[in-house]
Amino acid sequence: MYNQVRVRIAPSPSGYLHVGTARIAVCNWLFARHNQGKFILRIEDTDITRSDPRMVEVILESLKWLGLDWDEGPYYQSQRMELYKRYAQVLLEKNKAYYCYCTPETLKRKREEAAQKKINWVYDRTCLKLSEQEKAELESKNTPKAMRIFIPEGETSFYDIVYKDLKKENKELDDFVILRSDFRPTYNFAVVVDDLDMRITHVIRGNDHLANTFKQVLLYRALDEMMPAFAHLPLNLAMDRQKISKRKGAVAITDYRDAGYLPEVMVNFLAISGWSPKDEREIMSREELVQSYSLEGVSQANPIFDMQKLEWMNGEYIRAYDNERLVDEVIPFLIRENLMIPETVKDTRGWLLKYVVLFKERAKTLKEFAEKGKYLFAFDYQYDPKAVSKTFNSAEVADRLGQFVEKISVLDEFKKDKIEETLRKTADDLKIEPAPLIHAVRLATTGVAGGPPLFDILELLGKEEVEKRIKKAVEFIKAERKGYS
RNA sequence: GUCCCCAUCGUCUAGCCCGGUCUAGGACACCGCCCUUUCACGGCGGCAACACGAGUUCGAAUCUCGUUGGGGACGCCA
Asked: Which pLDDT tens digit goes with each residue over A266-279?
């Protein structure tokens, strides 16, 4: 049916790359790759007042981060004005469009009046009824004019791959503007012209465009052109079933990057949101997604963007990640949290590798690597009050810690096996179980009650640091005890 | 106000098109148990849904209609 599948993503640069837009991009990209087709990037910047070149940069950067490489573009609608004018001219000559001299103010007034009377507003065709004389007069006065499409009677229908047969009475639609008085095209017109010009075979977009599609179908018919296939994807909603907005958490794809989500997770998650493969797999590599993606598995109901599931998936990916690559991903977060400076990265890489291995099954986001193990980088950690009352609860604890420090101070090899041996020996000498001593040492050296196996942590800290930290804890406990008596 | 779309566990979903195999399957979250120095990971188990009402049929989550609920669109925005 098609020589080659050609799809596009058409963001408008009025903001960052919204997760919703990103999901549409993912679906288009997967569809293109699955069919060995082309993925085209088009920037819809006809609204000059709301377009910002810097936003284009953010959008391109976001797409690159997600790994959604495009084959053509970015094309800019703002650079294609002549094309739209040419197509508009065709419609005018075919008598499928006409000029409208109504002022925006008049239209606004009429619309408001209709709203007040609670009746549905469609353009009343004032300017279609103009006589040649009236038109000539308006022209002589250089009255600004927009161009409207003429909507014939009848009904408009099309087939949507997701929503199947759709139709609408034309009388519900009005003769909408296609060219503004400054000759810039409106959204619906520019989209049709561009999709035609770029030989787009499948228009894959959010179902918020369903209503627009009827207008666009009318445009294809007026132009006597072949239509692409349409597939409207259900819209992601926030937890409260409303549109995802700034107030309800992260909206920009870059927010997720900064929060420590992996790009492959975002692609995976966005792909299975509103779509599922036949075999119910959820964790899928890029290759697997490309292999099994199809528009047939897209659901019709709007899914809610489940942050908890996203987190879970990110954790799954982190655990399965290659350690060396994980170090690369984690470093920027450590730097951003001021836990290290770029200059020392090279020398500490071996150490970082061990660090990352210890925390990879405990971190759900990259950012958590810089949070959960903070104490390994800074000496000024605080003791968790709850753990203090549970573990640092007697003067004896200070003595035990003191004994342990003495025993490790003579170790010449500070490796985890040796440390563990020493600790168990210390507990034995003290005639206590190892567990309470382990807990005390952990709290003393890390400030918290939980975390990776203690002896790995101690080895990573190094002998000198461990001694320093335990001595500090001993002082802390003594001071604390004094306060009670 | 008008039009369009949607409806299975709290959430994402499988099943629906081609009615019986569905005492409705999986995943996230939650709860319990096991593993364990802790926290996690992992393993095992549990809780939990066909929105409602009619109709068609021997039989409906599956087909039809209605009700309710939710979403979206109605700009010289995109």
From this structure: 999 999 999 999 88
The whole model's pTM is what?
0.92
Task: For residue A185, give the nearest of A142, A135, A148 by alpha carbon.
Answer: A148
pLDDT of residue A330: 96
- In the set A64, A94, A108, A246, the catalytic residue is A246
Q: Which of A115, A88, A210 is nearest to A160 (CA)?
A: A210
Contact A56, A13 (CB under 8 A): yes
Rg (CA), chain A: 32
Question: Any idea which nucleotide's C1' is nearest the CA of A277?
Answer: B14
What's the 3-state SS for A74-100?
Answer: EEEHHHCHHHHHHHHHHHHHCCCEEEE
Give A431 CA → B9 C1' in Å. 53
Question: Strand B: which positions are within 7 A of a protein CB?
Answer: 1-8, 10-15, 25-29, 37-42, 70-78
- ipTM for the assembly: 0.93
The pLDDT assigned to A247 comes to: 62
Percent of chain A with pLDDT strictly greater than 70: 98
Residue A248 annotated to the active site: no
Instruction: Write out pLDDT tens, residues A317-343.
Output: 999 999 999 999 999 999 999 888 888
With CA of A319 and C1' of each nucleotide, the nearest comes out as B41
Output DSSP code: residue A452.
Answer: S
